[in-house]
Recover the amino acids of this structure.
């Protein structure tokens, strides 16, 4: 049974309108024992109208107060989802900003994610500039590999095959072409003491987890054991979405535990 949701968003994120209180209350109602809020911090996001950053002082003031208010009902952890970048004219500044944030504030947990490639969010397909879906997938994984090798300010990498969400309907991409680079990413994460998350957002909507069961199986075969579970909830109804299905899948793959973090330190819980 999974009783800890370690990837969720609130109104501190540009793409959520949910109050922290409403999300926490929903987690309590669902029987969650631990709940981690991980709002977006995507420095230098290419769309000025969508800054995807928040005031960390206000964030910590609010969540620290809520942690005290809900003590005894749920264990609230304070996290962040960092948008990591690899563009030559952006990566050094983003790395400096991310490292400073994690150094200056006592986050319990940090997700590293890739949301932007070549200065655009692949969600906006009009920015693909005539590139094929296969080219976009390759660019995404190249960016992830760069970030894994060059950033040390995160605990797990989020929704590892995230880019698959944005392959246009009706377009077929042979994902086996990317097995080699995905395996390299997994091995690099393991070697650097980093984990991955099982993101249930798409599973909750009738799809599959990110990453896929196949990638999770390969992660385990390579010796990977650090695995957090996150709904990627932006609304209350998404909290702990499809955790029962994810738990069943992970057990079938041979996993017996999942990870939680407090003050940057990992511990394990039984599935």
């Amino acid at each position: 049974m999974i009783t800890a949701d370690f990837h969720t968003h609130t109104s501190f994120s540009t793409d959520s309108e949910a109050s922290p209180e409403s999300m926490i209350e929903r987690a309590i109602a669902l029987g969650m024992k631990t709940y981690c809020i991980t709002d977006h911090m995507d420095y230098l996001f290419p769309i000025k109208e969508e800054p995807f950053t928040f005031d960390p002082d206000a964030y910590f003031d609010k969540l620290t107060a809520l942690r005290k208010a809900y003590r005894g009902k749920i264990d609230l952890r304070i996290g962040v989802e960092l948008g990591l970048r690899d563009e030559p004219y952006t990566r050094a500044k983003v790395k400096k900003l991310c490292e400073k944030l994690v150094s200056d504030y006592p986050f319990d947990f940090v997700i590293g994610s890739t949301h932007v490639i070549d200065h655009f969010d692949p969600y906006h397909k009009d920015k693909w500039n005539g590139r094929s879906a296969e080219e976009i997938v390759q660019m995404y994984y190249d960016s992830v590999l760069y970030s894994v090798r060059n950033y040390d300010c995160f605990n797990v990498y989020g929704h590892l095959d995230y880019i698959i969400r944005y392959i246009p309907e009706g377009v077929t991409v042979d994902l086996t072409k990317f097995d080699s680079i995905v395996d390299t990413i997994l091995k690099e994460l393991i070697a650097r003491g980093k984990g991955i998350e099982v993101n249930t957002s798409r599973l909750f909507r009738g799809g599959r987890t990110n990453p896929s069961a196949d990638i999770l199986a390969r992660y385990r075969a390579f010796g990977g054991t650090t695995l957090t579970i996150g709904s990627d909830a932006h609304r209350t109804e998404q909290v702990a979405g499809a955790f029962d299905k994810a738990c069943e899948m992970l057990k079938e793959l041979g996993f017996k535990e999942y990870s939680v973090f407090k003050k940057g330190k990992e511990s394990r819980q039984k599935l």
